[in-house]
Structures are given as structure tokens and as C-alpha cells.
Specification:
- The protein is an all-alpha fold.
- It is built from ten helices and no strands.
- The chain has helices at residues 7-18, 32-42, 62-66, 75-86, 90-96, 101-112, 114-120, 122-134, 140-150, 161-179.
- The longest helix is centred in the C-terminal third of the chain and has 19 residues, at 161-179.
């Protein structure tokens, strides 16, 4: 029986537990686990359903079980995936998945919905405000995201997440230094 958690959050839980590759430019596996997971999501299979097969133990059989690994998604599939991604709780992801992995997962979502996101701004308007809550108000990432959210001609892109990662890493470093946990002794 599927839980009340968002399907993308459940995919991210599995990805974190099974250490899936999220490197957009990966030339070894091409982040295939995510690509197959996205394929299952857009066909309506829930990650907790018995029929869900995208898991590491099935990695060598995924092409047999699910067909050819998708290189890109159709417009309809991008819209379906975007709808699932948009309802994800980024606080849940950041709490249950280490940095930078959860940002990498978001990056893949943005990469695979890029064409429709430029028209719908669905993830921009859902994830943008959530990401702002993590960022110090004076950071360049906060300024960038604010500009993107408030400009109807722009949308959040996976490349924007690099500035978010840098701001979050700097924030973490400052917190560790402030508490003395980051000092060398």
C-alpha cells in the first residue's frame, strides 16, 4: 500500500539508500537508475507498488523489464513528471538525503523537464520558494533565485543549483566554524 509521501521523495529515498548516480554528465551509467525511475513514474507506477522494478538489484535487467532506457522524455511525459516533482517537499529531501545528493536529484528532475519547464514554470514556482528558505538572504544564490521566481520569462534550471550548493556549503562551513566543530585541533 503506497504511503502518503510524494513519489519523487520515495525515489530519492531509494536512490540515497542504493547510492544511485545523479551525475548529469555521467558517461559510465548515464544515471540510468533515475532515467528508468522517471520512466516508471510517468507511466503511473508508484515506487512502493509491487510492480515497481527500478532498484539496484534489478540494474542489469532493467532494459529487459522496462525496455530501452529513455534518452529524453516526450512533452507529455515531461509534464507528467513535472507534476510529480512539483509536489515534492524539499525540506524532507534535505533532511533525509545528504548534501549535495538531494540537489543532484533535483538537477536531474530539472534536466528531464527542461523543455516544458521553460513554458510552465511549474518547478520554478514550487521549488524556487522552497530553496529560498534554505539560503541566507545575503547570498548570491538567494538573489538569483528571487530574480528567477519573479521574472515570468525565466525558469529554474539545473545549472542554477550549483550556486545553491555553494551557498549551502558556505553556510554549513560557517556554522561549523562558529560552533567550533570545524576547528583543527
Amino acid at each position: 500500500m503506497p504511503s502518503g509521501r510524494n513519489q519523487f521523495e520515495l525515489v530519492c529515498d531509494r536512490a540515497s539508500a542504493e547510492n544511485w548516480c545523479w551525475n548529469i554528465a555521467c558517461t559510465t551509467c548515464g544515471h540510468m537508475m533515475f532515467r528508468y525511475a522517471f520512466k516508471e513514474l510517468v507511466t503511473g507506477v508508484h515506487p512502493q507498488a509491487d510492480s515497481w522494478v527500478t532498484r539496484s538489484r534489478n540494474q542489469r535487467r532493467l532494459s529487459t523489464l522496462l525496455g530501452e532506457m529513455p534518452r529524453r522524455l516526450t512533452t507529455d511525459d515531461q509534464m507528467a513528471l513535472g507534476s510529480i516533482l512539483a509536489s515534492a517537499d524539499l525540506n524532507y529531501l534535505s533532511t533525509n538525503t545528504p548534501l549535495p545528493d538531494w540537489l543532484g536529484y533535483l538537477g536531474l528532475g530539472l534536466c528531464y523537464t527542461e523543455e516544458t519547464e521553460s513554458m510552465s514554470r511549474l518547478l520554478t514556482l514550487s521549488w524556487g520558494p522552497q530553496l529560498l528558505e534554505f539560503l541566507p538572504g545575503e547570498s548570491s544564490a538567494h538573489k538569483l533565485l528571487s530574480e528567477i521566481i519573479h521574472d515570468d520569462r525565466r525558469c529554474l534550471r539545473w545549472t542554477d543549483l550549483e550556486s545553491v550548493e555553494i551557498a549551502l556549503m558556505l553556510q554549513r562551513h560557517r556554522q561549523l566554524m562558529y560552533t567550533g566543530e570545524g576547528s583543527v585541533g
